[in-house]
Sequence to fold (255 residues):
Amino acid sequence: MSAPKRVVITAGGAGIGRALALAFHASGARVAVCDIDANTIAELAEIQPEIIGRVANVTDADDMAAFLGDVDAAFSGVDVALANAGTGGPAGPIESLDLNDWRACLSANLDGAFLLCQWAAAHMKAQKSGSIILTSSTAGMFGYPMRSPYATAKWGVIGLMKTLACELGPYGVRVNAICPGAVEGDRMERVLKNEAAAKNQDIEEVRQIYVKGVSMRTWVSADDIADAALFLTSPAASKISGLAMPVDGHTESIT
Ligand SMILES: NC(=O)c1ccc[n+]([C@@H]2O[C@H](COP(=O)([O-])OP(=O)(O)OC[C@H]3O[C@@H](n4cnc5c(N)ncnc54)[C@H](O)[C@@H]3O)[C@@H](O)[C@H]2O)c1
Fold:
């Protein structure tokens, strides 16, 4: 029997990250997560005490070094790294946006991915195996009016993924991205509220625009994303690298 996978997830306390953590744990993996919010780490510990949880802000290099140091001590390596952290950033026409909000959005979506990938690449190159998945978005595949910081950050995530797939492929390390569509949950409710305000529209009108832009006329669940991550890190995907994989019911437009 092979050793359990060692899985590290950023922003794993709630939302998609929590679904990833629970799904990988249920598959038999050893899982460590960080989250900026101590409450989510406490909640996850109650749900599944075997998952290692640490409070860390992915944009803070010292926090990440402390988290990943603990992971090193516990796991002595990593087989799967899921750079999942990201925030939605401000909504509005570009001329209304604040530079600090722009920077915060790029930082939350990109700095954490950089720091996790940097650490994971060192381990995976040495062991000549491993799989990295970055969480982008359908916002990383389309133009996204009123959400320029988020779309820019998520296209950046794809650029990082494509580049690392080239850099790490020779070492047998695969790098892919998952691009979720609108995921049911608190976050999308906040996004709808902000967009409705920015567009001066009713929140239900904005919700319908999202659904109508999807061929399958559906949102997706965090578990759909976890299923895709399990597939991409399985032997069934052993030759898949450099893929930006939408999990979205097929988005036609996100305007
Ligand atoms: N929810 C969606 O509809 C959707 C769609 C496409 C892509 N995504 C992407 O999926 C990823 C996860 O999204 P989600 O909906 O689960 O998010 P969420 O807003 O539900 O937050 C999940 C967790 O991230 C943590 N977090 C936020 N900033 C952090 C930071 N700086 N450091 C560490 N933890 C931090 C939060 O505390 C929370 O526990 C993000 O990269 C997001 O951009 C989400």
Q: What stands out?
A: The chain has eight helices and seven strands. The chain has one domain: 6-182+221-247.
